[in-house]
Amino acid sequence: MKILFCSSEVVPFAKTGGLADVAGTLPPALEVAGARVKIVMPRYRCVDVKKFKLKKLDDETFSTSIGKNVEVLLLEKKSFFDRDGLYQQKGMDYPDNLDRFTYYCLQTLKLIKKINFKPDIIHCNDWQTALIPVYLKKMFKNDLFYKNIKTILTIHNLGYQGLFPKEELAVTGLNKELFSLNGLEFYGKINLLKGGLLFSDYISTVSSTYAREIHSAEFGCGLEGVLQKRKKDTAGILNGINYDEWDPRKNKALVKNYGPDSIEGKYENKEALQKIGKLKVDRKIPLLGIITRLADQKGLDILAEVIEEVVQMPVQFILLGTGDPRYHKLFEGISSKYKNTSIHLKFDTTLAYKIYAGSDIFLMPSYYEPCGLGQLISLNFGTIPLVRRTGGLADTVEDFDPFTKKGNGFVFSSYQAGALLETVKRSLCVYNDAKTWKKLVTRAMKSDFSWKKSAKEYISLYKSLKS
Ligand code: ADP
C-alpha cells in the first residue's frame, strides 16, 4: 500500500499547530502498520537545509526522512516559501496564499509523476492541500499515470477554509464552470476546502464527535450542506500523540524525568516552572496552565470574562500563546496586575514541555475542538485537563466523579463563563484532597493515546478505497 501524505506543516520541520504534530507522527505510524509512505510539504525558510541535512534532488525539490524510512519531499520555490511565516506575518495572511498553495498542489502532482511514485492513496490535509482532489478529477483525469489514485481529505479544522476573491480563479488554472454552487463557489468567493470536500473520494476528520458536529449549522462553518451530502463517505478517526516527544520519562527539556511510578519528579518540574515564570516557588499552590493559539475557537472569550476571578483565587496561572492581538492585550493587562500570573506571548516548544510538566491543571475551554492535542499531551504529563465537552475533548476527557472516583479530568458543557468558573472551583476542591489528586494524576498518566489504533483505522480505510 503506497500513501502520499500531503501537509503544509510537519513536525519537526515547521509547525503552527496540531496539524504539524499529526503530519509528523501519523506517517511513521502508518509505516509501522505496513504502508509505504512519502510526505510532501513546502520548504519554508525555517526548514534550514543544513540543520535538517536536506538532500537536493533537483532545483525544485529537497528530500529527507523521518521514522524508519518515510521520505519527506520539500518543494523549493523561494519566491513563495522563503519567508518568516508559514501563512501569515504579523497576524495578516500573505496576499498571495492562493498562488502559493496552488503551486504546492500542482507541483506535488507533477513531482510524483517525475519520480514515478504512484500512490494508491493521496491523503490530503486541510485547505492548503484541497486542490489536489480537484486537479485529479478535472485537470489530470486523462493522464494514465494518475488513474485509480484515490484521495482522502482530512479536516483538522473547518474554521479555516482557504477563502479567496473570485477574481483570482485564474490563478488555479481551473475552468470557470467550477466556480458554481456544485464547485468552489462559496458566498461569492473561492473556497478551496469546499472544492476538496466535493472532489475527494473520502472525507475524514479527527474525532468521532467532531465528525458528527460538522453536519450541524453550529459547527459546519457554512459547509454543513456540502458535508451532509457526503455523510456516507465521512469518518472520524481520533488523533494520537507521539510518545517519543511527549513522554515525561524521556523529554530532555525537563529538570527531572518522571512517570506514573515516580510522580514526585513532576513537582521538581513544577518548582522549576515557578522559577522560570517568576512565580512564588511553592508546590502546594495549584498551578493552572494553558498553551494555545490565541483565537476565539479556544474559549478565550469566556476565559476573558472570568480570568480576574480565577486569578484572585489562591492559584497561579501560566499562559503560553500567540495570535489575536486582542488577547495579547488582555493578558498583558492581567500580567501587570496580578503577581501570581506568568504570561508568555510567543511560540516556544521548549517552554511548552515545561508547562505541560510543571502545571497541575491544563485549561482547554474550547468553543469547538476537532480533536485537540493539548489535553492528550497534558494527560501524559499528569496535568489534569479541564475542558469543554466538544469534539475530541468530549471523546477523550471523562469528567471526574468524586463518588466513584472515575474520570480523568474536569468537563463542562454549556459554553458560558460561569460554567467554566464553576468547573475551575470544582477542580480546586479535588486538588485540595491530596490523596485523591495523586490517584487522578497517576491514572491520567496511564492513558494510552498512541497512534497504534488510529493508524490501523486509517490503513483499513485506505484498503476499502483502493480499487
Ligand atoms: P490547534 O491545532 O487547534 O492549534 P491542538 O491542541 O490540536 O490545537 O494542537 C496544538 C499544538 O500546538 C500542541 O502541540 C501545542 O502544544 C502546540 N502549541 C500551541 N501554541 C503553542 C505555543 N504558543 N508555543 C508552543 N507550542 C504551542
Structure description:
This protein is α/β, with parallel strands linked by helices. It has two domains: 2-240 and 451-466, Glycogen Phosphorylase B (Rossmann fold), CATH 3.40.50; 264-445, 3-Layer(aba) Sandwich (Rossmann fold), CATH 3.40.50.2000. It has 17 helices and 20 strands. It has helices spanning 18-32, 78-81, 97-114, 131-137, 169-172, 192-199, 208-213, 224-229, 264-276, 300-311, 325-337, 349-358, 374-380, 391-396, 417-431, 434-445, 452-465; strands spanning 2-6, 36-42, 55-58, 61-66, 70-75, 88-89, 92-93, 121-125, 150-155, 163-165, 185-186, 189-191, 202-205, 234-236, 287-294, 316-323, 341-344, 361-364, 384-388, 410-412. The strands form four sheets. A nine-stranded mixed β-sheet has the order 3-4-5-2-1-8-9-13-14. The longest helix is centred in the N-terminal third of the chain and has 18 residues, at 97-114. It is globular and about 65 Å long. The chain binds adenosine-5'-diphosphate.
Helix percentage = 25-40%
Category by helix and strand content: alpha/beta
Total beta strands: 20
CATH C-level class of the largest domain is Alpha Beta
Assess the beta-strand content as a share of residues. 15-25%
| Global mean pLDDT | 97
What kind of oligomer do you see? Answer: single chain
Task: Kindly give the count of domains.
Answer: 2
Bound molecules: adenosine-5'-diphosphate
Low-confidence stretches: none
Rg on CA atoms, Å: 22 Å
